[in-house]
Amino acid sequence: MSPEKLKSLLFKFKNNELSEDEIIEHLAKLPFADLGHSTIDHHRNIRTGFPEVVYGEGKSAKQISQIVKELSTQNEHILVTRVDFEKAAEVVKLVPSIEFHIDSGCLTLSHGEIIKRGVGPIAVVTAGTSDLKVAREAALTARISGNEVIEINDVGVAGVHRLFHRLDDLRRATVLIVVAGMEGALPSVIGGLVSAPVIAVPTSVGYGVNFGGVAALLGMLTSCSSGITVVNIDNGFGAGYAAAQMNRIGETAHAVKR
Fold this sequence. Notes:
Helix 6 packs parallel to helix 11. The protein has two domains: 12-109, no CATH class; 122-254, Rossmann fold (3-Layer(aba) Sandwich), CATH 3.40.50. The protein contains eleven helices and eleven strands.
């Protein structure tokens, strides 16, 4: 149940287009639905501005399908993260309208047009091509929540001149998500070039003492560039969600300023 949907129902009731019984029927599943294995939070969009997101890892295809079908009763856009190819294929058989994004390991199901949000675009920047899966999860999260996304790929510090070629796009973004493995240096460089918030995402890409992304995480946490925010290792979803929230807050401030 989105704020827009709730307002529409109340407007129709006010104008005698819906009866009390019809309103009660629409709201009967608020605030949650119990599926036995999962308890679906139908109220989350009203509270936070974004519906519940399904974390696919550890759930069976049948469980994911049941959750998606329940969420679909509210006609909201649905995002499922961390789904491998085999599990996604099973879910698609059970819910044919759902779409699998193999580049991010996510499933999405849209109900109607996605409402555009935010002051400006969110830039998703990768240090290397090996960071793309995490970056695409971030980009997809930002897009399904209504944001324009600029993708800038493979511009890490080993060839930093590639980054300077995209300075105009970097500076046009209102929030930047910077995804890097190895030593995780790219967010520090970008943080010194732009005035917008930078969300750093360490990835588990790297050899030996990278320790599965811990080296990149520590490098980002100890960055000499001011104002960099860091999410957990490989957490593209968390970065995309946070960026969307920042952009939405900026949207509110922009509206007040006007």
